Amino acid sequence: KGRSSVIENYLTVADTRTVVAGGRPAVLWRSALLPGWGQIYAGNKVKGYITATLFTAAAGFYIYSEINFFSKESTYQNLRGDVYNPKFRRELFSAKDSYAAAADLQNIAVFTVAGVYMLNLIDAAFFNGPYSASELQTFISPEASRITIAMKPDSAWLVINHPLP
Prior knowledge:
Radius of gyration: 28 Å
Distance between the termini: 27 Å
Number of strands: 5
Largest sheet: 3 strands, antiparallel
Low-confidence stretches: 1-18, 131-157
Number of helices: 4
Structural class: alpha+beta
Order of helices and strands: EEHHHHEEE
């Protein structure tokens, strides 16, 4: 995690939690290959595990919707009978409605998988913090009896005030 030390009346802050070898491209290609891997690689393990879990659940939902769709399609296409028979017509329309509902569910599953995947890539590219030491910004502005260090390691400013001896 982070560490701080006083060296010659100056406060030095070293925070290497999110400094990653390879920078943003390394995080991004890992997230593109396996959603959540880039976030874990960048040190955001909770976010990475949540992303991986969401993607796995979405993929499972998609697989279920595919199996369901082909089952309903097969049932509908294999129905044979007299269309003038009211009982057969009810069965036919019920199978057709189930087939259409399965197609709708399949479309929702495709958009769910694509949405989770795209959010994973956007997060890996823009919202995962700094990935190389050059992306950390440190500003030192001495006051009368204090030194103020402001860093922007993530999206919020971290300001540390330390009294000089």
